[in-house]
Amino acid sequence: MIILNVNGERLQAEIEADTPILWVLRDSLGMTGTKFGCGMALCGACTVHLDGVSIRSCQTPVSQAVGKQITTIEAMNDNRVGKALQAAWIEHDVPQCGYCQSGQIMSAVALLASNPKPSDEVIDAAMSGNICRCGTYNQIRAAIKTAAATLAP
Amino acid sequence: MKSAFTLSRRRFLKNGALVIAFTLPGARGLAHAAIAADFRPSAYLRIGSDDRITVVVGISEMGQGVHTAIPMLVAEELDADWTRVRVEQGPVGAAFENPMYHIQATGASTSVNGHWDPMRKAGAAARQMLVTAAAQRWKVDAAECRTEKGAVVHPSGRRLSYGKLVEAALRQPVPKEPQLKDPRQFKIIGQSLRRLDTPQKVDGSGKFGMDVRLPGMLTAVIAHPPAPGGKPVSIDDSMALLRCPPRIVR
Fold first, then answer.
1. ipTM of the complex
2. A chain contacts of residue B65, beta-carbon cutoff 8 Å
3. Cross-chain Cβ contact A95/B194 below 8 Å
4. What's the Rg (C-alpha) of chain B?
5. pTM of this prediction?
6. Residue of A22, A38, A99, A144 to mutate, testing the B interface (most B Cβ within 10 Å of its Cβ)
7. Residue B130, Cβ neighbours under 10 Å: how many?
8. Span A85-100, pLDDT tens digits
9. Is-contact A103 A56, C-beta < 8 A?
10. Using the beta-carbon criterion (under 8 Å), do A95 and B203 form an inter-chain contact?
11. For residue A81, which of A46, A51, A45, A106 has the smallest C-alpha distance?
12. Of B248, B70, B47, which is closest to residue B151 (Cα–Cα)?
């Protein structure tokens, strides 16, 4: 028995301790906003937050989440930074196929939470672990800057 | 899914929306397809009494933008208010076949090309039915009426939004060859509009193939041989069965 906190909700799960968080979210909880990409922590599609820090959920065993907060894309509608990024994503028409975008936004939320006014170089470095087959990188960078501007006090 | 095949030329939806079912135009080049098309009507368009317009697209959105481009074709001829247009993924069904391939497939840059006429006609037919409905209510000649941004208007100043005309429009016959616009009149086609599918792609609610769960659905996993050309001699699935017994099927 493992006790988890997902998006502020306390959950109990009968699950093997080494099950990756991604499959607990997708298969056990039916939360499909977090995507399976490579399964090897190489593409960033599965990015979620563990206590606010970006992690690759496909390679992080659920045992590491015990006593911590898991936050996913599904919670971003209620997150100030997340909402600003979603609005900027829409304004810049960022997604094409959209498969990587949950992970992109989760990485961007973690970036803006720690650095409210990142430079292009900082954005590129922070986002370099999230791969987009459609090549929406320029729009992502522009959207992050728009969101940063709207969040500025 | 069966209902997609048996739709009459028009029908009510349970929610009272106006549904435009439309016969695909004669398929290009193939006589048998042109004949069969008359027996394959489909529903591409719903107009709700709340003025919401839903375009049902049977094409896969893969980032190429068809879930915006196809609704634009319908909205153009319908003179829709673009801010009230939304898109819905169509089901699997003959009605949603690619008019050029005669199978429900997405590819080879045929989506807009192939659906250019049928989708515009779906919008134009709906528009014509709405105009007739408004003219009947006002007791005026339909030719005096015009349409703009989701409403029928008359020179006298009268105006009815499409949503208010849904019930009356349902009783109109579907025109077989609705009048299409001269491309010089296009207001929506040719514009660069924001994509309709973006909101679902930024909050995790968008459904991709891998996100679909059906009752009793199983996941197949391929065990690859360690070397090319390898053939299975025996299978040892004891570890898999040990770890998640209820989920493994032999």
1. 0.95
2. 96
3. no
4. 23
5. 0.82
6. A99
7. 28
8. 999 999 999 999 999 9
9. no
10. no
11. A106
12. B47
